[in-house]
Write a structure and sequence with these properties.
Layout lengths: L8 E8 L7 H17 L2 E5 L13 H7 L7 H13 L2 E10 L2 E10 L2 E7 L7 H4 L9 E4 L2 E5 L8 H9 L4 E5 L15 H13 L2 E5 L2 E4 L2 E4 L3 E3 L5 E3 L8 E8 L3 H5 L18
Parallel strand pairs: 1-2, 2-3, 7-8, 8-9
Antiparallel strand pairs: 1-14, 3-4, 4-5, 6-7, 9-12, 10-11, 12-13
Helix pairs in contact: 1-3
Length: about 280
C-alpha cells in the first residue's frame, strides 16, 4: 500500500484455540504455528484469545506470578513482537501482564515495526477480581497502516460505553481477545449472547469488531467458542466459529468504506445523530 493511500482492504484472522493452563511454552508454540498459518492464508491482522499465553483459571496468585510477564519485554510479548516483525503483520493477543507489582489481564498490539501498545482489561469477570488489578490505561486507539485499532477484552464487551468511547476516539476496528463462558439462563443451543452484543455494538458505532475466543474446559470451567468477525453494519463477515473445535476465521475488511456505512441514509448518521446535548 502506498504510504499516502490510507488504510484500505485487508484480511483479518481470529484464531480460536485451546490454551493449556500453566503451559506457557506449549501455548506460545501453538500460537506461533497458528499465526504462521493465518499469515499464509493472507491475514494482515491476527487476533488471539484472552490470556492466550497462560491459560485462564488460576489456582493462586503464585501460579499467576509464574506465568505473567512484562509487556513488551517479557518472554510471551517479546516472542509475539518478533513474530510480527518477521512476518510483516499486526498481531493482537491477550497476555498475563506483570507491571509495577500488579498483574493485569492485558492485550498487546504489535506490528511489522515492533511493539505498538497495550490495553488493560477494565471490567474484571468473576475470579479475575482475586488476581488482577483493574485496567488503568483507559481505552486507547492506535494509529497503524491498517487503520485506527482499539482493543477490549471479553467482559468489556458487555458495556456499550466501551465501544462508544473507542468510536469517539476514532477507532475503525476493535480487536477483542476473549474467553467467553456460558451465560446464566441462556439456551445452550442458541447463539452466544456475546455474539448479539458485539453485532449490536458494531452496528450502532459503525465499527469492525474481531472477537477471538477460546474453546475447551479448564479446571471445570467450560468455554463456548463462537469467535466472530463483524462488519460496521453489524452483520457477521465470518463466524460464529464452532463451539468446541479450534478454528481460524478469516474475513476481508474495507476500512476506507466505513464512512459510507455509518451514513445510514441521506438524513441519518450513526455518529452525527447522537443527542450529546441530553446524554449524561
Amino acid at each position: 500500500m502506498p504510504p499516502d493511500s490510507g488504510p484500505g482492504r485487508y484480511t483479518v484472522a481470529c484464531v480460536q484455540f485451546e490454551p493449556v493452563i500453566g503451559d506457557r511454552a506449549g501455548n506460545l508454540a501453538k500460537i506461533e504455528a497458528k499465526v504462521r498459518a493465518a499469515h499464509a492464508a493472507g491475514a494482515s491482522l491476527v487476533v488471539l484469545p484472552e490470556l492466550a499465553d497462560s491459560g485462564y483459571v488460576f489456582d493462586s496468585a503464585e501460579e499467576l506470578a509464574r506465568l505473567a510477564g512484562p509487556v513488551p519485554d517479557g518472554e510471551s510479548a517479546a516472542r509475539l513482537v518478533a513474530l510480527a516483525r518477521e512476518l510483516g503483520i499486526h498481531i493482537v493477543s491477550g497476555l498475563a501482564e506483570a507491571a509495577d507489582g500488579h498483574f493485569y489481564n492485558a492485550a498487546m498490539l504489535t506490528g511489522p515495526d515492533g511493539y505498538i501498545g497495550t490495553y488493560r482489561k477494565l471490567h474484571l469477570w468473576f475470579r479475575e477480581t482475586l488476581f488482577f488489578a483493574k485496567g488503568d490505561l483507559g481505552l486507547p486507539v492506535f494509529d497503524t497502516p491498517l487503520g485506527r485499532i482499539g482493543m477490549a477484552v471479553c467482559y468489556d464487551g458487555w458495556f456499550p460505553e466501551t465501544f462508544r468511547t473507542l468510536a469517539d476516539a476514532g477507532a475503525d476496528l476493535v480487536a477483542i481477545p476473549t474467553n467467553w463462558v456460558p451465560m446464566p439462563a441462556q439456551d445452550p443451543k442458541a447463539e452466544a449472547m456475546a455474539n448479539t452484543l458485539h453485532k449490536a455494538a458494531a452496528h450502532s458505532n459503525g465499527l469492525y469488531i474481531a472477537c477471538a475466543d477460546r474453546v475447551g474446559v479448564e479446571r471445570d470451567q467450560p468455554f463456548i467458542g463462537q469467535s466472530l468477525i463483524v462488519g460496521p453494519d453489524g452483520w457477521p463477515l465470518a463466524g460464529p466459529a464452532d463451539r468446541s473445535r479450534e478454528e481460524t476465521l478469516l474475513a476481508e475488511v474495507d476500512i476506507g468504506g466505513i464512512a459510507t456505512v455509518r451514513q445510514l441514509n441521506q438524513y441519518n448518521h450513526v455518529h452525527a445523530d447522537r443527542r450529546r446535548d441530553v446524554y449524561r
